[in-house]
Amino acid sequence: MAQRNIRHLTHSVSYGYLNSIRYFRVKLNKGQVLATKVVTLETQRSKLERKEQAILDAARAIFVNHGFDGARMSEIARRAGIGEGTIYSYYESKAELMLAVLQKFWDGLTLEAEAVMASSTVEDFSDRLRALAQYHLNTVILNADFINLSFALRRNNSEVSVSRDHLRHYVAVFDQLFRRGQDRGELRQDAVLWQARDIFYGTLEYSARSIEMTIGAERAERQQGPVVEQMVALFEAHYGADRAAKPADNANIDHMSRQIEQLDAKLDALAKRVS
Fold first, then answer.
1. Residue 263: per-residue pLDDT
2. Domain 95-247 in CATH 3.40.190.290
3. Where in the chain is the domain with CATH 1.10.10.60?
4. Which pLDDT tens digit goes with each residue over 196-241?
5. Domain boundaries for CATH 1.10.357.10 within the chain
6. Residue 248 burial (10 A CB sphere; 0-12, 13-18, 19+)
């Protein structure tokens, strides 16, 4: 009787163990199938993203070469190595594609500018301004054609012009740096932000165009250094915190000059009397 119970118990345990193995195998197989599906979806998503990036790159090149009105979707498709119909599975129209190119470009610039500030190991305003100026100047030179197209579309009130929000987000990097300098006591508290911003971007963009038009690409990089240093010197001279006292200093100097002139006159008069 005891042996029969032991055999029954052993059989039950073995049966349960085998069922557990079968269940584990089923679960494992389902997990493998699920994992395979996830990998497949990720691969498909990656392919779609690469294809979309190819479309955006091709579109940017064609828009720069032919302008928005002169660009053809068939040319963009040919450059991207896809069928023209594929583009329309991503973008409904040429205008929508142009807007996507503009958005990606300006969003990318903003992220890169923020990264420049985040990676800076110095706290000094002038050094951080120097890094941002170098980035912006180099960016404008390298992307001059597309930036010119962007602003041409905006000037013409085109339906595909870059939005104010994209520009606002980009220049906000400078705004944050400038306010930080004021908070740290490095810049004048009475300095007007929008004026400083216009001087910063306007001067660098004019310099970038001058460099691009007048000298070769191999010299452009060397020429950027002096432009950046002049920009930093300009800000230090005009916006530095010590400049807040400049009007009073000038008044004191003028007062001292008048006193010296009066003293000279008295000495001259005294000298005449003595002679």
1. 45
2. no
3. 1-90
4. 999 999 999 888 888 877 765 556 666 788 899 999 999 999 999 8
5. 95-247
6. exposed
CATH superfamily, with its number, for domain 1-90: Homeodomain-like (1.10.10.60)
Question: Which tokens in the block code for residue 228?
Answer: 């950046």
- The conformation of residue 124, written as its DSSP 8-state character, comes to -
pLDDT digits (tens, 9 = 90+) for 84-131: 999 999 999 999 999 999 999 999 999 999 999 999 888 899 999 999
Cα-based distances in Å from 87 to 55, 84, 164, 196 = 7, 6, 27, 43
Q: Map tokens 């032919």 to a residue.
A: 66
Across the range 21-47, mean pLDDT stands at 56
Burial of residue 136 (number of CB atoms within 10 Å: 0-12, 13-18, 19+)? buried
What count of Cα atoms within 13 Å lies in the side-chain half-sphere of residue 25?
6
